[in-house]
């Protein structure tokens, strides 16, 4: 199973012809306890860099960008109900959304785990 | 870029895993590893230790200090008894607020604590009226229901103190100025300590049951839930004490007799009522509504006010905010709307504090 990373600290896990998107352990630890998550609607077409998710900690609000072009196919309602899932399981139950990429080959331009680990030190 | 100042507890913060950030010219811990949420809840449940050494501590000992302070503030300084502390406001000729502060009558001198971000303004401002000595000491705050028991292990005399009492006593060795006050809505103390004893005092308190270090992040969420103003956000040179709903801080003699900067404006607002007022706000839903978000009487309507402080209240379990609204819309229960990311979120005007205060009266 292939996992890719962005410089905005998102991870993308390939699942069939879709990808599942979330934020990394490093990102959740920097943000601190989340108190609010706003997700896009399933079916939304997005372009790389679009602000698709709003997350807020006690301290501050942050935007999460669409990692690549595509269509949001499903969202994780559980993290809207309980934003702390993102803190406790960022790589698992704290996923944000699934998307169908416009071009799966664009994944090749993202970082692999070794490169991401180098980025966050 | 000027060099950031460090408090005597800097190395201790780093050792405790504090995340150090620039704040008002100082390098201060915004949080420790457990994070803002747990630090906030811990302070309300047991006790939190805060380093507030960035705030400026002043000693006023000249004979004219009482009349000088009354010439700068709409506050009764003359009748504050020895051993007592009071909230004060420095006002400007337009009635605006130059800073808020705490002052205490220590008998033969007055102890004044002003905001770090305003120290460079306040020290010359007060010095123009009376002689000011800047105290080079550390300042710790110990807040929460377990604060009294923890501090009493160092000097049992603190058990006799009530809210807003001020005393000088040894805790480690040299004299500390202890006030039973704070900025969280909880019972607790602020402790001015000789800086060479600051680490020993902090470590002695952190050894006590229930005392954990707390950063500036939780300090802000605690004071917001307590409905306490942050200078620069909720009050500034463009807000008067009447608009800021701080009439209680101006005692009767001063309100009636004037004799402070901006008295004409403030007395006019006292008799006619202000056109706008600071209020508490409870946003519907979970989204925090933060400083700078505009307020509207109706969806898509024109702006009528602004949020001056806002965020998530961990003890409230939801978003809380403060802001300014036209007086006719400032009654608790009134619904207004915040323009948030293109949507209009309903908020209810609410009484502050948002949490029950636990001061020891």
From TrEMBL, chain A:
Q: Which Pfam families match?
A: GCV_H (PF01597)
Gene3D superfamilies named in the record: 2.40.50.100
* Residues bearing the modification N6-lipoyllysine: 59
CDD domains hit by this protein: GCS_H
Query: Which keywords belong to this entry?
Result: Lipoyl
Q: Which cofactor does it need?
A: (R)-lipoate
Q: Which residues form a coiled coil?
A: none
In its keyword annotation, does this UniProt entry include Signal? no
Q: Which InterPro entries match?
A: 2-oxoA_DH_lipoyl-BS (IPR003016), Biotin_lipoyl (IPR000089), GCV_H (IPR002930), GCV_H/Fam206 (IPR033753), GCV_H_sub (IPR017453), Single_hybrid_motif (IPR011053)
The record describes how the cofactor is bound as: Binds 1 lipoyl cofactor covalently.
- Name the PANTHER family for this protein: GLYCINE CLEAVAGE SYSTEM H PROTEIN, GLYCINE CLEAVAGE SYSTEM H PROTEIN-RELATED
Q: What function is annotated for this protein?
A: The glycine cleavage system catalyzes the degradation of glycine. The H protein shuttles the methylamine group of glycine from the P protein to the T protein.
What interactions and quaternary structure are annotated? The glycine cleavage system is composed of four proteins: P, T, L and H.
For this entry, the protein name equals: Glycine cleavage system H protein
Q: Which organism is it from?
A: Pontivivens insulae
What's the encoding gene here? gcvH
From TrEMBL, chain B:
**Would you say which domain of life the source belongs to?**
Bacteria
Report the InterPro entries cross-referenced here. Answer: GcvT (IPR006223), GcvT/YgfZ/DmdA (IPR028896), GcvT/YgfZ_C (IPR029043), GcvT_C (IPR013977), GCVT_N (IPR006222), TrmE/GcvT-like (IPR027266)
Instruction: Please list the residues that bind substrate.
Output: 190
Q: GO biological process: any one? A: methylation
What sort of enzyme, by top EC class, is this?
transferase
Give me the Gene Ontology terms describing cellular component. glycine cleavage complex
Q: Where is the Aminomethyltransferase C-terminal domain?
A: 276-355
Positions of the GCVT N-terminal domain: 9-252
Pfam families, per this entry? Answer: GCV_T, GCV_T_C
Tell me the GO molecular function terms: aminomethyltransferase activity; methyltransferase activity; transaminase activity
Enzyme Commission no: 2.1.2.10
Keywords from UniProt, A to Z, are: Aminotransferase, Methyltransferase, Transferase
Q: Which residues cross the membrane?
A: none
Q: Where is this region: Disordered?
A: 259-278
For this chain, the family text in UniProt reads: Belongs to the GcvT family.
Name the UniProt record assigns to this protein: aminomethyltransferase
In the UniProt record, the gene name given for this protein reads: gcvT_2
């Amino acid at each position: 199973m292939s996992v890719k990373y962005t410089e905005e600290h998102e991870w993308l896990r390939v699942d069939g012809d879709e990808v599942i998107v979330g934020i990394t352990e490093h990102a959740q630890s920097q943000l601190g306890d989340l108190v609010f998550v706003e997700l896009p609607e399933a079916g939304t077409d997005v372009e790389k860099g679009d602000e698709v998710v709003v997350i807020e900690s006690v301290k501050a609000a942050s935007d999460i960008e669409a990692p690549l072009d595509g269509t949001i196919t499903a969202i994780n309602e559980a993290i809207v109900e309980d934003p702390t899932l993102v803190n406790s399981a960022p790589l698992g139950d704290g996923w944000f959304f699934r998307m169908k990429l416009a071009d799966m080959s664009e994944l090749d331009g993202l970082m692999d785990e070794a490169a991401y680990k180098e980025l966050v030190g | 870029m000027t060099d950031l100042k460090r408090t005597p507890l800097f190395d201790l913060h780093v050792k405790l895993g504090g995340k150090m950030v620039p704040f008002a010219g100082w390098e201060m811990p915004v949080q420790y590893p457990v994070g803002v949420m747990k630090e906030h809840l811990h302070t309300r449940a047991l006790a939190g230790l805060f380093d507030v050494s960035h705030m400026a501590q002043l000693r006023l000992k000249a004979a004219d200090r009482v009349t000088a302070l009354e010439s700068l503030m709409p506050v009764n300084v003359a009748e504050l008894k020895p051993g007592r502390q009071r909230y004060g406001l420095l006002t400007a000729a337009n009635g605006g607020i130059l800073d808020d502060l705490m002052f205490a009558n220590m008998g033969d001198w007055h102890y004044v604590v002003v905001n770090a971000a305003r120290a460079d303004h306040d020290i010359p401002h007060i010095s123009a009226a009376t002689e000011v000595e800047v105290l080079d000491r550390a300042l710790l705050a110990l807040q929460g229901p377990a604060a009294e028991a923890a501090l009493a292990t160092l000097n049992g005399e603190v058990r006799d103190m009530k809210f807003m009492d001020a005393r000088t006593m040894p805790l480690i060795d040299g004299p500390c100025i202890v006030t039973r006050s704070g900025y969280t809505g909880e019972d607790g103390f602020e402790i001015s300590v000789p800086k060479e004893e600051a680490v020993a005092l902090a470590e002695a308190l952190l050894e006590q049951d229930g005392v954990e270090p707390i950063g500036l992040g939780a300090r802000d969420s605690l004071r917001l839930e307590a409905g306490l103003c942050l200078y620069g956000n909720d009050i500034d040179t463009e807000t008067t004490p009447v608009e800021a709903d701080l009439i209680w801080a101006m005692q009767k003699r001063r309100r009636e007799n004037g004799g402070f900067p901006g008295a004409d404006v403030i007395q006019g607002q006292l008799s006619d009522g202000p056109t706008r007022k600071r209020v508490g706000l409870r946003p519907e839903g979970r989204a925090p509504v933060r400083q700078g978000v505009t307020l509207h009487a109706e969806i898509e309507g024109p702006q009528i006010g602004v949020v001056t402080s806002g965020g998530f209240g961990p003890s409230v379990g939801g978003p809380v905010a403060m802001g300014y609204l036209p007086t006719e819309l400032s009654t608790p229960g009134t619904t207004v709307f915040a323009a948030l990311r293109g949507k209009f979120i309903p908020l209810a005007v609410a009484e502050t504090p948002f949490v029950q205060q636990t001061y020891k009266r």
